[in-house]
Amino acid sequence: xxxxxxxxxxxxxxxxxxxxxxxxxxxxxxxxxxxxxxxxxxxxxxxxxxxxxxxxxxxxxxxxxxxxxxxxxxxxxxxxxxxxxxxxxxxxxxxxxxxxxxxxxxxxxxxxxxxxxxxxxxxxxxxxxxxxxxxxxxxxxxxxxxxxxxxxxxxxxxxxxxxxxxxxxxxxxxxxxxxxxxxxxxxxxxxxxxxxxxxxxxxxxxxxxxxxxxxxxxxxxxxxxxxxxxxxxxxxxxxxxxxxxxxxxxxxxxxxxxxxxxxxxxxxxxxxxxxxxxxxxxxxxxxxxxxxxxxxxxxxxxxxxxxxxxxxxxxxxxxxxxxxxxxxxxxxxxxxxxxxxxxxxxxxxxxxxxxxxxxxxxx
Length: 363
What we know:
Layout: H1 3-23, H2 51-56, E1 66-74, E2 79-80, E3 87-88, H3 94-104, E4 108-109, H4 116-123, E5 137-158, E6 161-180, E7 186-209, E8 212-223, H5 226-244, H6 248-255, H7 269-286, H8 353-362
Parallel strand pairs: 1-4, 1-5
Antiparallel strand pairs: 2-3, 5-6, 6-7, 7-8
Helix pairs in contact: 3-5
């Protein structure tokens, strides 16, 4: 019984020491002093698992093709402003994320996210809007579903010792489309969804020490970062939109960088085109033919010394290495625009602007 007053005295001393310790803690200071700020992890650039696939497209998209991003709206209708709510559940900057993805893919991008500077300068007559570069393609869409899936869990306690585990999920979905600015025709479309995972685990111990009940509880929670997961979805969707209007042999290598552990798209025409290309390659190898998309081997011939009119020691003219994107000779010859409506009602021998843009993509 004599130990009880001593325990109370020790508890009072520890409580006082805790209060004095809090006064020196980061973020706490006197009214006349600045609080010391806590230094967290360093700033870094944002890298997603789909960046390699986007970077692989750099150089495969003609530079004279111009892309822009229109409205990509949050249409989930989910928000919370009361009882400590955080406002909108979904980022309002999805369009800027897509613009970054296009830039990473090496596409030529014009800014249509905020026209206020251009329109203000036009009103001041210091800018001629007719000199602005027009878009060939623009991307629009919405984040249109955010469903909270009921979770489940379990908790077991035996003789004052117990463990618990719970998990919950959020299902988020979006739809993006790429439109030909010349005709308004949608040339690519992709719907995507992802489950955001969260879990909680812990262990608790309860024991009587003398006649005092003591409880000790340890636990932790983890959840995917919603906005980072959304950025990954938008990066994958941007890659899919760009490749839907390209030939399979031009993007099949890049698609191999999409790790299925992070995301996959199996029910679009790009997946079908890549599967058909691999099947054609396998068939060609089986008969010893050249696989589709492979560069032909140089033909064997006589040595330069044996060619008439070739002098030894004189370098031959280097072959033209100008990229297709900047050649001046008929870059659209032989193209028909491989999507419906490419002719636009014109004669079959006359290529529409839409077909020209398609031809540059597929070269």
